[in-house]
């Protein structure tokens, strides 16, 4: 009985302890939950699987920062990107790793091998110790010109006129020449490739410096445009098209190809590169006239006095530029290396309308850089037109990012354009040039309204420096709307005979004319006739009543 009672007490004690232990185990073990979610991690679609423990109050015991480094598993899905990540107000674009590595290796190959060294070796190894420029001795100049003449097809012979131009450039244009030498590192390799393709002397590359100072958007007072300064009609002959968005004359590649074709055709006509360059500047007709007036001479220096004034200084400037570039080291020019050579850029065909602002925001490229690489887009807009192809040029590393995120960039552009209040400028082709003959009573404002253009356009197209016109003068006009120049007046306009007009006579003034029509003031006449000043010409037709 005694042992039975002891055993019973022991069993009861063990059972009580076991129950207490079970109760404690149940109350202290937290619940848990397996979480599976999809997030964007480092720009990639990522599936997260993690076990999250809760305490007895169902509160998460670890923060997100604790969880992410200790993910149970991570699954990354590589899919076609249709959206873009924006972090700290900047878009984070990822390039394809293997493709980016290939681009990098290829750039190293180009930058370090003989392909690039032959162009940039002298520039990269310049001695930058200060050199004081001293007067160039005539004998030294003669010897250098003789060496140049031996290796080029141009007639480079010493003469006082050429010496004067060279000295002037060295004294007054050294800084600008250094800037041009830096820019030439971008353009000259491309020029040389195209010149070689058309069997044109490589020294012709210096012509672009004389023509445009290597500015692809340069525009002369008579409308010649681009690196090679093509007039509108000449450009059309060589497939350089112009519309409201694009001017191919400002496209470095297209305009260089056109210039080579034009120069090759001029050389076939004259058989002399000096005369071919003169004809490029002033036209073949002016060169042939100069040959006749000089008595049949065909040497440039002999016909030079009979060429137009601008062309007379054209070849000396070209030869002086060639001399300075060829002997830059001897004259102590200090040239910085250009940041992005032409070979370090690439193009991509654009499949949708894009603006430079959109590209700049997404790729984090300056708009000014986009303008430099893509100078032919006049409004900083790359159009998308059925049947035509337009390209975007960028540094290679940015091209990779664009291609890898192309659809997402297009989607973003569509959304941005849809939110715009004003539509983008409407495309129209400037295929037809209209020649207008000034009539009695015409003035620039009146002609501009007729063709739907600005007065400044008329002045630029025709090289006008004032608003003065003469009867019979012919003006070149590029109408802003198709068929605008030939648009016939509507029946309503024909029947509108209520508008009073007055023909200006000798001695008339705005005040005297206003006095002849009750209720009409000088300001009325100026407003109705788009007159800013007070000068009148006899024969002008003025509107003196409201329509």
Description:
- By secondary structure, the protein is mainly alpha-helical.
- 46% of the residues lie in helices and 11% in strands.
- It contains 24 helices and 13 strands.
- It has helices spanning 2-28, 64-67, 97-112, 114-124, 138-151, 160-172, 174-197, 207-212, 232-237, 252-270, 273-282, 284-293, 300-303, 309-312, 314-326, 356-363, 367-373, 396-404, 406-418, 444-451, 455-462, 491-494, 510-515, 522-528, and strands at 32-41, 44-53, 73-77, 85-87, 90-92, 345-349, 354-355, 381-382, 391-395, 434-437, 474-477, 501-503, 541-543.
- The strands form 6 sheets. A 3-stranded antiparallel sheet has the order 1-2-3, with no helix packed on it.
- The longest helix has 27 residues, at 2-28.
Features of this protein?
547 residues; mainly alpha
Number of helices in the DSSP assignment: 24
| Biggest β-sheet: strands ordered side by side in the sheet | 1-2-3
Cα end-to-end separation = 133 Å
Strand content: 5-15%
Radius of gyration: 38 Å
- What's the overall average pLDDT, rounded? 75
Could you name the ranges where pLDDT drops below 50 across 5 or more consecutive residues?
21-30, 40-44, 49-80, 101-133, 481-495
Based on CA inertia axes, which overall geometry fits? globular
Largest sheet: 3 strands, antiparallel
Secondary structure class reads mainly alpha
- Helix proportion: 40-55%
* Quantity of strands, as a count: 13
């Amino acid at each position: 009985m005694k042992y039975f009672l002891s055993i019973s007490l022991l069993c009861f004690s063990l059972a009580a302890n076991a129950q207490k232990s079970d109760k404690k185990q149940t109350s202290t073990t937290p619940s848990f939950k397996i979480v599976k979610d999809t997030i964007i991690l480092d720009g990639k679609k990522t599936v997260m699987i993690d076990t999250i423990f809760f305490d007895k109050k169902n509160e998460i015991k670890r923060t997100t920062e604790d969880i992410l480094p200790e993910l149970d598993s991570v699954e990354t899905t590589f899919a076609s990107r249709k959206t873009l990540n924006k972090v700290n107000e900047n878009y984070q674009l990822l390039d394809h790793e293997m493709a980016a590595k290939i681009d990098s290796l290829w750039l190293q190959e180009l930058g370090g091998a003989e392909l690039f060294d032959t162009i940039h070796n002298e520039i990269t190894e310049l001695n930058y110790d200060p050199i004081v420029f001293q007067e160039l001795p005539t004998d030294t100049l003669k010897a250098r010109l003789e060496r140049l003449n031996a290796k080029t097809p141009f007639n480079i012979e010493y003469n006082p006129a050429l010496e004067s131009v060279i000295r002037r450039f060295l004294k007054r244009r050294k800084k600008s020449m250094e800037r041009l030498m830096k820019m030439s590192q971008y353009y000259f390799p491309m020029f040389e490739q195209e010149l070689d393709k058309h069997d044109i002397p490589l020294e012709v590359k210096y012509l672009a410096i004389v023509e445009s100072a290597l500015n692809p958007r340069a525009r002369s007072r008579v409308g010649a445009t681009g690196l090679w300064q093509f007039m509108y009609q000449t450009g059309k002959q060589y497939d350089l098209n112009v519309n409201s968005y694009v001017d191919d004359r400002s496209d470095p590649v297209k305009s260089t190809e056109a210039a080579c074709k034009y120069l090759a055709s001029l050389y076939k006509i004259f058989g002399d590169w000096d005369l071919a360059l003169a004809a490029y500047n002033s036209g073949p007709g002016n060169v042939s006239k100069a040959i006749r007036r000089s008595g049949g001479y065909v040497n440039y220096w002999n016909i030079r006095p009979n060429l137009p004034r601008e062309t007379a200084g054209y070849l000396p400037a070209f030869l002086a530029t060639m001399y300075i570039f060829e002997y830059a080291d001897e004259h102590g020019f200090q040239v910085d290396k250009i940041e992005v050579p032409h070979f370090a850029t690439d193009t991509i065909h654009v499949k949708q309308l894009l603006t430079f602002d959109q590209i700049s925001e997404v790729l984090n490229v300056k708009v000014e850089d986009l303008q430099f690489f893509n100078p032919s887009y006049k409004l900083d807009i790359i159009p998308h037109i059925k049947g035509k192809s337009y390209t975007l040029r960028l540094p290679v590393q940015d091209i990779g990012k664009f291609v890898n995120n192309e659809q997402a960039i297009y989607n973003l552009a569509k959304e941005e354009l849809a939110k715009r209040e004003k539509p983008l400028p409407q495309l129209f082709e400037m295929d037809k040039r209209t020649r207008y003959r000034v009539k009695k009573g015409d003035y620039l404002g009146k002609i501009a309204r007729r063709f739907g253009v600005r007065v400044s356009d008329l002045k630029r197209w025709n090289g006008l420096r004032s608003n003065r016109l003469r009867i019979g003068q012919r003006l070149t006009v590029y109408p802003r709307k198709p068929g605008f120049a030939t648009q016939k007046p509507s029946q309503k306009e024909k029947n509108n005979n209520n508008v009073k007009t007055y023909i200006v006579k000798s001695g008339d003034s705005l005040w005297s004319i206003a006095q002849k029509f009750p209720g009409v003031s000088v300001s009325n006449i100026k407003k109705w006739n788009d007159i800013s000043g007070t000068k009148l010409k006899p024969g002008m037709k003025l509107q003196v009543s409201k329509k």
